[in-house]
């Protein structure tokens, strides 16, 4: 673990020069797509987890930020709201996003866009790497409910589409982890809470324009797309998926057209 002084280096620039990576903490290395297993996880150092969580709570944006749109959290000059549904979509499923702290400060975040598409009471974002009964009793209760699913691929995961056909309890809640593969893996396997919900995955032929252009190495679908596909299956409403698909293309075009701003 590096010192707090070194850690504060992380809060200065939004975009760090390549050479700055030498000063990253072990946890900051998790930001790198396709990087090694997170050092903190490899060490199994629980004591480091608390300090790591505090590190991620440090602001990484400069004090003077460009004015942001209150709905999509993008700089106002490149607001993406015209590409989002005018009103929140009506859904009955509750969505919990477990967001790795590194995702919160990424320049192009998809979770605020997702939150802007859904009713506030149906989309909750929990930021952190470690969750427990004591720290988060609400999430603990959600995880133990029989109608809760967690979206994470693997041999143990059922295909969501097939699962809901036979499920005795129709799913009311789905948990999605927002992060790179290594971050999501760390969160999924290092939190025993996430053993409780039924593990499901998406077997979909949907290709991701967003992935091709934005995430070429380390993710299958963006969190926004995962949520849209999962919700469209759970809500039996292809409109959710279609509107998200269209939006993703428009959003990525708008992003690239304005990325110099
Ligand atoms: Zn906006």
Keywords:
261 residues; alpha/beta; six-stranded parallel beta sheet; 11 helices; 6 strands; globular; binds zinc ion
**Estimated share of beta-strand residues:** 5-15%
Give the terminus-to-terminus CA distance.
36 Å
Per the principal axes of the C-alpha atoms, what is the gross shape? Answer: globular
What is the spatial order of strands in the main beta sheet? 2-1-5-3-6-4
| Biggest sheet descriptor | 6 strands, parallel
Find the structural class using helix and strand composition: alpha/beta
Helix content: 25-40%
**Secondary-structure element pattern, one letter each:** HHHEHHEHEEHEHEHHH
Count of strand segments:
6
Mean pLDDT: 71
DSSP summary: helix tally: 11
What integer value in Å does the Rg equal? 18 Å
Low-confidence residue ranges = 1-48, 209-219
Bound molecules: zinc ion
Notes on the structure:
This protein is α/β, with parallel strands linked by helices. It has a domain at 88-200. It is 37% helix and 10% strand. The protein has a 6-stranded parallel beta sheet, with helices on both faces. The relative contact order is 0.14. The model is unreliable at 1-48 and 209-219 (pLDDT under 50). Zinc ion (ZN) binds at residues 69, 71-72, 74, 79-81. Zinc ion (ZN) is lined by residues 69, 71-72, 74, 79-81.
